[in-house]
Amino acid sequence: MLDLDFGCTRCGRCCTGLRLPLTLGEALGWLGDGHEVELLCEALPWPAEPARDDEPAAHRRRRSFAAHSGRLPLRVIVVLAAAFSGRCPNLGADDRCAVYARRPLVCRIYPAEIHPFLTLVPAHKGCPPQAWDPGQPALLRAGRIVEAETHAAIEASREADRREAGLKQRLCAELGVDCAAIGGEGFVAHRPPRPALRTALQAALQSAAPTAARTATQAALQPAGEADTAAAGASDWRLVSRSRRTLDELGAAGARIGPADALANGAYLDLGAVDAEPGGDPERSGGVAADLRAAAAAPAPPR
Ligand code: SF4
Ligand code: SF4
User: Fold this and answer.
1) What does the pLDDT look like over 94-120, one tens digit per residue?
2) What is the model's pTM?
3) Residue 119, number of CB atoms within 10 A of its CB
4) Which of 13, 47, 117, 255 sits CB 3.0–4.6 Å from 69 for a disulfide?
5) Is residue 122 a contact partner of residue 128, using CB atoms and an 8 Å limit?
């Protein structure tokens, strides 16, 4: 099992050129600070429920909501992301984080992995080699996070991902967001007007209270984080791809399809574009890119 030591050199490389996953509350705060937030949308064709012991599929199910595209059943994963192409707007001239005490969970976790099925590989991170020198503080022992604060941040991030999946369905319905890329190929980045997004985020967060108060019976009938599709509004998604073959096969399965490069209300970003972001780390920018890669192993588009 993996043992790793790690000491942050404060090089600031992990604060540049990112799409930084945020919780709903963090996204509201990011908007309040005057910065931009996107909704990154990917869809997983879900023609049947996976086997009970398929843990990766169960993970994807927990962090997604049920939808459809025409006749094709889907799970849709939406990630709220702080988007910036250069330095993070919170990165000071001294390369220190100006909001360190209230920085997003993902910033507290890096370079550890949020994704439960990914192994931390130092070469995949943006940190300089000396950050991993033996004798630095212990990060992993036998593959487990040593530091209590990082461990707690990972658990909080995963819990928010599960708890907020259904709220994101409401958010998309409110904002008219209904276009996604295919998991494993890319995602569609929507950037709604900031006032509309702020209002929709506030409404989604307020709607969480009754969800938490569900009865045990309701909880048994409807898994946590799963929104009531009818209450959340229409959920017929349009799927886009740069692959003619994917579009043909999705079309044959009865999906609503379209080309990826002519989007009226979003931008198509493929995984290669994410990985190539200057200074960006695919696993971080990511968490998204990592999950899209994992999604490639999900019930795939009919091929
Ligand atoms: S919020 Fe702070 S830690 Fe996070 S990317 Fe920005 S500057 Fe870096
Ligand atoms: S890239 Fe690594 S070493 Fe550099 S600031 Fe980020 S966490 Fe620290």
Assistant:
1) 888 999 999 999 999 999 999 999 999
2) 0.84
3) 10
4) 255
5) no
